[in-house]
Amino acid sequence: MKKIFYSVVICLAIINHSSAQVTKTEDVKKSLATTNKDTIGWVHSGIFTLGINEGLLHNWAAGGEVASLVINSIFHGNLTHFHNNNVWTNNLDLAYGLNYAYSNNFVPRKADDRIDFTSNYGTQVKNSKDFYLAALYNFKSQFSKGYDYSIPDWEHHPTSTHLSPAYMTLAIGMEYRKGEDLSLFLSPVAAREILSSSKYTSLNKNGAFGIDSGKTSKFQFGAYFSGRYKKKINKNMVFSTRLDLYCNYLAKNQVGDSGVIIKKDNPGNIQVFWDNLFVLKAYKNLSLTFGLTFAYDNNFPYSKTYIDKTTGLPVDKNQPAEGLGWVQMSQIFTFGLAYKF
After folding, report:
1. Which of 87, 311, 315, 329 is buried most deeply by CB count within 10 Å?
2. pTM (2 d.p.)
3. Are 215 and 226 in contact (CB under 8 A)?
4. How would you classify the pairing of strands 271-283 and 261-263?
């Protein structure tokens, strides 16, 4: 009986302590968004959006797709633990979209696909409220197979797949932060590993994703910058942006068997990833979402042509986005459900 009594007392004490900690966290959550405070507790925030666009035409004089459906989903989550002058921040960004069209027999085609996780642990520099000595880990990959839909018989020739490629970055450096809304991390010592199945790196004699042909991994070492900024414009509008830069110290020209340079590269070819998201709450859980992402990577050159799998001859893609050159771009605009937490 005494054991049961003591167990109940201990449980009540734990619950009371947890409640007090949560209450404390909620009390300081707003101020922690823009300032750094010595406190203990967890703070979380995030948003999930699901947008659906549908179109239907019948005997339409102007022509167009008879029926189409586009589904886009985005998740941005943050979980931060404060322990006096130590801060552990975790950010998870997920995105996935599918496009269904009557002209393609409603076979789904990817419109978006991203897995992006960052964990950052920092210790406040003595006599400074805004600077931290920090270690950062970042993981990037995708959920499902990727295709080049411009080539014939594309469904039998995937160019990537789940977790292939995958990018892992581990960096040590200095972080400047103002609460949860602003973080600027800079590291002169950043190791990166690129992983992929040899099935996809063997598709081209020059390899893929920066990995040599037939290989499954590539090690890079360089400098890394990651900046995040979030702005709550008003109670219904939120804007967030993120900029990642990576300089590979080991980058060098790739020379073929004949001694001819087949790919020019050097540490000045900085890899760029710039992500922007704007969410406007329209009514209760309905929202407008606009996302725009730019990327540049010397390992993904732009080509005006593709190789026809049946003839082996180059064919002009004639893509309207040719003016962007090597820059990669992804843009979405959806109206749908949004859930904040």
Report:
1. 87
2. 0.83
3. no
4. unpaired
Task: Give, as one character, the DSSP assignment of residue 19.
Answer: H
- Convert the pLDDT of each residue in 54-74 to its tens digit: 888 877 887 888 899 999 999
pLDDT digits (tens, 9 = 90+) for 84-93: 889 999 999 9
Nearest to 35 by CA among 132, 180, 174, 242: 180
Rounded Cα gap, residues 49 and 95, in angstroms: 10
Rounded-to-integer distance, Cα 99 and Cα 192, Å: 33
Q: What is the arithmetic mean of pLDDT over 27-33?
A: 59
What values do phi and psi take at 294, rounded to 5? -120, 145
- Closest by CA to 224, choosing from 171, 159, 176, is 171
In angstroms, the CA 137 to CA 90 distance is: 10
- Amino acid (one-letter) located at 4: I
Q: Give the residue carrying structure tokens 């820059």.
A: 327
Question: DSSP string covering 306-325, please?
Answer: EE-TTT--EEE---GGGGGT
Q: Strands, DSSP E only, in 216-327?
A: 217-234, 237-248, 254-255, 261-263, 271-283, 286-296, 305-307, 314-316
- Sorted by sequence, the CB contacts under 8 Å of residue 3 that are 6+ apart come out as none
- For residue 81, give the amino acid letter: H
Whether the Cβ atoms of residue 155 and residue 147 lie closer than 8 Å to each other: yes
91-106 pLDDT, tens digit per residue, is 999 999 999 999 888 9
Contact 136, 170 (CB under 8 A): yes
